[in-house]
Amino acid sequence: MIEEDDDLINEQNEPQETITRVTGMYKDWFLDYASYVILERAVPAIEDGFKPVQRRIMHSMKDLDDGRYNKVANIVGHTMQYHPHGDASIADAMVQIGQKDLLIDTQGNWGNILTGDRAAASRYIEARISKFGLDVVYNPKITEWQASYDGRRKEPVNLPVMFPLLLAQGGEGIAVGLSTKILPHNFIELIDASIKHLQGKRFIILPDFPTAGIADFSNYNDGLRGGKVRVRAKISQLDKNKLVITEIPYGTTTSSLIDSILKANDKGKIKVKKIEDNTAAEVEILIHLPSGLSPDKTIDALYAFTNCETSISPLGCVIEDNKPLFVGVSEMLRRSTDNTVQLLKQELEIKLGEHEEQWHFASLERIFIENRIYRDIEEEETWEGVISAIDKGLKPHVKHLKRSVTEDDIVRLTEIRIKRISKFDIDKAQQKIEALEAQIAEIKHHLEHLIDYAIAYFTRLKKEYGVGRERKTEIRTFDDVDATKVVIRNTKLYVNRQEGFIGTSLRRDEYVCDCSDIDDIIVFTKEGKMMVTKVGSKIFIGKDIIHVAVFKKKDKRTIYNMIYRDGKGGPSYIKRFAVTSITRDREYDLTNGNKGSVCLYFSANPNGEAEVVTILLRQAGSIKKLKWDIDFADILIKGRVSKGNLVTKYSIKRVELKEKGVSTLKPRKIWFDDTVQRLNVDGRGELIGEFRGEDKLLIITQSGMIKTVTPEVTMHFDDDMIVLEKWAPKKPISAVYFNGEKGLYYVKRFLIEQEGREECFISDHANSQLEIVSTDWRPMAEIVFAKERGKDRKDNMELNLEDFIAIKGIGALGNQLTRDKVNQINLLDPLPFEAPEEVHADDLEVIDEKEVAPDSSESPENKPNNDLEIDDEGQTMLF
User: Fold this and answer.
1) How many Cβ atoms sit within 10 Å of the Cβ of residue 847?
2) Is 277 among the domain residues?
């Protein structure tokens, strides 16, 4: 106590910092723990594709296997003899293996990967090893064994898996300091890739998910770190107010998907009336939409704002030689295939040794009995004498054997029963030896042609187990969804023009438009200033706002027409420009930059319209002409920082709109990219045509549905679409179809009577089927007749559909084609026809830039400004 008190006094008098070093086992504890988690729990081994708990489950199932189902609780309890962890973790791991439907035959409620429902308790469900698992996972003769954690039993170091199991099942785990995420791949494609590798050919393998869906593997990066896979739900339009989800992204469930849709609806990103989940064996989520909402736009919004599109980052990490190894899926497959070849070789070598031993003893047995060597031991009184007598009797007859005779061989001969000797059949013995020789020769042939044997092995696996394992996930390249184009406008935007404020909270001020909280807003002021800013509750822009709108990035079709005065008493200029890219919250000056500049006239034109305005001057001095008209169509479209063309050096009293204009832009070219099944204006895919504002797309499906729609890049298309082209209203559509009700083929030609309405132009009978459809002016078809019993086959007939039937209504039945049995109907090249040219009112020629002032006798200042500034986007010229 005294010493402790002294120490306490010393500490109080002289405060000191004590440093205690952690030595001994403490410094290694964390590293030991991290190594244990990495090697023994979270990361699979590259040799067999199993984590330790999975390997022990499969080993325990083999211990218990008798061909019948075992309670999972029993298997879990048996596995605890090998796995030093709780029963819950073992049961969860076993359910995950069972849900992959590859190694385990399941019975009972094993949960649902689509809905996320959990499996029943382990005492209620049963399992046994599948036929495939027995075939490719086990072979105790080539398995390396080690002591279990308590030393009572033996467990496999690795199971001799002769299949790329890790890639087929996938694997995921979080360890200490690293993680792994190996995506599942298609069973058949893995076998095909293994065969290609053995043949020395290149191969590519891509994931295939049990939940199906649509996936973009453009950035898969062979499953290495840094790669990314985009997965989408399969969404289709059931009718104009209903969408249906039939496949979901990997890693989601119908419950989590519906929750994400409801959250997006609550936040106002999308609008949904009702959701029904009818999922059972297959996914079916019905999404009811409010009337007047675009289904195509809603589909894109679901991809943009919900879990209908997810991004997966793969990370190939496995254990090799007790070390983590980061490796791509192609290398995993190569190593697995090479490992399978070596295992097959070991298996063949073991079989060869066993067959050679059988041949050796069968030959010895025949020599022993055929030459009655067993009689030589009758006089022997000692065991040594018996062995010596047999050995002596065998020597003259064993020269053809492949190895020398050992004492163990002689001992086995002495164990042959007298009954067997008495019934010995030399012919049967010889047949057995010859059969063994044939088997030995076959095994040696396989060893000499090991690669061919391995290819045959993989081919057998594909034939026996590949049925029903075709690819589920559709491979496609995605276009990025622009969230600003598909978001629901759930907020109202207001403006206080005089004070210069915009925002969503200014409800007492002027309403501008509906917007969303992710939109950008473009604002122009009377001073000739422009700014783009995010939507907010109240934002100050600048006094005297003259135009506010939602800003669209890279919009080259919205053209701004502007007349401004340069400085307080300077000349006035006219300009046309587009705003395609900006820096947010930066103020741009659209005038010449002089103090006192003011915007005299401004208009925003979504399709590049060019109006006619009247210029009115103030009376001053000797001005001869105080009023004249200017057509904006005469002005070239340039960059937003261009100075513009001189209007006049005199003071303008006002500018009045005289006549609204038409578009001065060329028709917009639209392409269809078959890879992503989307329209675009970027030149990808096949050119459909040049479209003006009133032009429509014609869409025809294999099911006989036809409609015309205004082309939009957000449109979705059905899988059975067979015609997609620019619609010519006066061009007839010709079709040959089978009428299911009458059992005959009919021909019809018709025009679309109602724009924008979807109609069926074949009969609605369940057996009705569209054979051919043509949008040519003068189509030709070939009829191939079938051979009828007792009759000669009719010659093929060419049919001019224009002559066969006149143009009728879309609902007409049509003319009967023939009563003869038809085998096939083919569409031929059409007859020549010169289609009439389309004439549009807005086919205007853009006039070159020129001076627009009325009086050529004005000062030189009135001459056109040819020294124009070009902004960083370059000079923009749109027709």
Assistant:
1) 12
2) yes
Which domain covers residue 423, as residue numbers? 335-448
Count of residues in the chain: 879
- 785 phi, psi to nearest 5 deg: -85, 150
Cα 268 from Cα 489, distance rounded (Å): 8
- Domain match, 759 and 702 both: yes
Q: Which positions ≥6 away from 549 have C-beta within 8 Å?
A: 512, 513, 521, 522, 604
Phi, psi values for residue 135, rounded to 5°: -75, -40
Cα dihedral 277, 278, 279, 283 sign: negative
453 is catalytic: no
Domain end among 130, 160, 190 = 160
Among 807, 704, 800, 696, residue whose Cα is nearest residue 751: 807
Bigger pLDDT: 416 vs 469: 469
Rounded average pLDDT over 797-815: 90
CATH number of the domain where residue 212 is located: 3.30.1360.40
Within-domain flag for 42: no
Q: Are residues 252 and 294 in the same domain?
A: yes
Higher pLDDT, 20 or 220: 220
Q: Which residues pair with 214 in a beta bridge?
A: 232, 474
**Nearest Cα residue to 136 out of 347, 443, 452:** 347
Note whether 683 and 779 are same-domain residues.
Answer: yes
CATH number for 70: 3.90.199.10
Do residues 784 and 680 both lie within one domain?
yes
- Looking at the structure, do residues 229 and 186 belong to the same domain, yes or no? yes
Residue 656 to residues 6, 617, 634, 653: CA-CA distances in angstroms?
Answer: 101, 11, 17, 10
With bands split at pLDDT 50, 70 and 90, how would you rate the model's confidence at 868?
very low
The answer to whether the beta carbons of residues 211 and 285 sit under 8 Å apart is no
Strand partners of residue 232: 214, 309
Same domain, 184 and 319: yes
Smallest Cα–Cα separation from 320: which of 180, 138, 146?
Answer: 180
Residue 121 has pLDDT above 90, yes or no: yes
Strands 474-475 and 214-219: parallel
Distances (CA, A) of 48 to 62, 343, 624, 847: 16, 11, 96, 74
Q: How many structural domains comprise the chain?
A: 5
Task: Supply the CATH number for residue 372's domain.
Answer: 1.10.268
Q: Do residues 264 and 270 make contact, with C-beta atoms less than 8 angstroms apart?
A: yes
33, 36, 124, 511: which is the annotated catalytic residue? 124
pLDDT band with cut points at 50, 70 and 90 for residue 478: confident
Give the amino acid at 499. E
Q: In the block, which residue shows the tokens 């929750």? A: 259
How far, in Å, CA of 668 to CA of 658, rounded?
28
Residue with tokens 């989307």: 678
- pLDDT exceeds 70 at position 4: no
Q: In the β-sheet with 214-219, what is the strand arrangement from edge to edge?
A: 309-312, 228-232, 214-219, 474-475
Inside any domain, residue 28: no
Amino acid 403 reads R
Radius of gyration over every alpha carbon of the chain, rounded to an integer in angstroms? 42
β-strands 807-808, 744-750: how paired? parallel
Percent helix, strand, coil in the chain (nearest 5)? 30, 25, 45
Distance, in Å, from the CA atom of 97 to the CA atom of 101, rounded to the nearest integer, reads 7
Determine, yes or no, domain membership for 503.
no
Residues 267-316 have pLDDT tens digits of: 888 999 999 999 988 999 999 998 878 788 889 899 999 999 999 999 99
Mean local confidence (pLDDT), 425-432: 84
Residues 574 and 609 in one domain: yes
What is the Cβ-side half-sphere exposure of residue 186, based on CA atoms within 13 angstroms? 21
List the one residue out of 97, 71, 437, 516 whose CA is nearest residue 268.
516
**Chain segment 711-728, per-residue pLDDT in tens:** 887 788 887 899 999 998
Going 410 to 411 to 413 to 418, the CA torsion angle's sign is: positive
Do residues 316 and 350 share a domain?
no
Biggest CA pair distance of the chain? 156
